Fold this protein.
Amino acid sequence: MCLAVPGRLVEILPDENPTLRRGSVDFAGIRKEICLAFTPEAEVGQYVLVHVGFALSVIGEDEANRVVRLLNQAGDWE
Amino acid sequence: MKFVDEYRDAHGVAELSGEIRALVTRPWKLMEICGGQTHNLLRYGIPELLPPEISLIHGPGCPVCVTAPELIGKAVEIARRPEVIFASFGDMLRVPGPLGSLLAAKAEGADVRIVYSPLDAVNLAHRHPRREVVFFGVGFETTAPATAMAVWQAEREGLANFSLLAAHVLVPPALEAILGSPRRAVDGILAAGHVCAVMGFGEYEGLAARHRTPIVVTGFEPIDLLEGIRLLVAQLEQGRAEVENSYSRAVHRDGNLEAQRMLHEVFTAGPREWRGIGSISDSGLHLRARYQEFDAERRFPLPAVAHAPTDLGCLAGEILQGIRKPRECPLFGQGCTPDAPIGAPMVSSEGACAAYFRYDRRSV
Ligand code: SF4
């Protein structure tokens, strides 16, 4: 359950409270609204490592592709 | 070696495995902390790629597995209350407790809902103002900042019908207990990359020095895991006990400061009971005084749930400390399977018993 999954930040959603900054993150075609409170530095187009609805860190595209490949191989993460 | 063909980088794997063989001169026992790593080690057949001197033992790194049966009992009691919507991560639903599992309570009519994020539970509370929404906060330092944010948000919005059943646990105190135990069975530690992405690894430096034990921050791919093992073996063979970061593409020494700030705003460390291990001081996250009105244990006072023998004969405690291996349990595969689990390490896909059952069927 501690797995964190990479996705690409495609949009930053407007919110009057910067502590609750949210963005739309694309996970191989599926978009989810993700809290960006812990990654204030994240910019549209970058990859973020997401866990239980929160972006935990900004990562490089290479790392994102490696993890996605591993997850596809495993295919059975719950 | 049946999974070797699946590696894109089979060459890198063979090379690392060869380097480990060249380094090793004595038997070493290495422990990974993280259940996700346990799962991948077994899935990719990594134990078979290692020289016979190296044995891998599996630590307590599955928060589902270490949640005390008493707490599962409390969760079920709270969930059964008619006014309650009980929100939980899906992994927790099948874990057996003294009053049965949350899934069984749901089948009997309790309103138990699976959520993806703690913030989903806050949204449930908004949508159902006449109900009490209780979130079961389970997980290590990777997950706890998200729960902290949910509580912080509920406080800020004056959300009176939201509360938290707190079961979050911290890795370093558990490592302290395992490394300081007279029954200690480990020589070196693979630290979990995603926990360190949040907390950094400064805390591990004291542990490594005090217990003269090397600790390597490690990622999740087969190559990552083998590289972590290689670095540990090199340290052990050279008599070093340092913290090394082999997952620098996601982990920095200080971790994620924003997430840590939120964690410390809402929670403070206190004792917590670990399934099969017992109480470990300062290993659990408890709500600070300012947030205590959101504590489900205060909001729904419960009689202490007696520890009914739900897991008689289960060796979870010894498995979670790496003292024994799943297939040393007489119930493994005989009476205890993922479909009919007796103990928590067989329930969660990240539990050591489930990982062995799934990927290492030699002795079943
Ligand atoms: S096989 Fe089942 S009974 Fe034995 S230790 Fe694992 S979870 Fe417990």
Remarks:
- Residues B 314-316, 319, 326, 329, 331-332, 336, 342-343, 345-346, 353 surround iron/sulfur cluster (CB under 6 Å).
- Chain B has two domains: 1-304, 316-357.
- The longest helix of chain B spans residues 222-238.
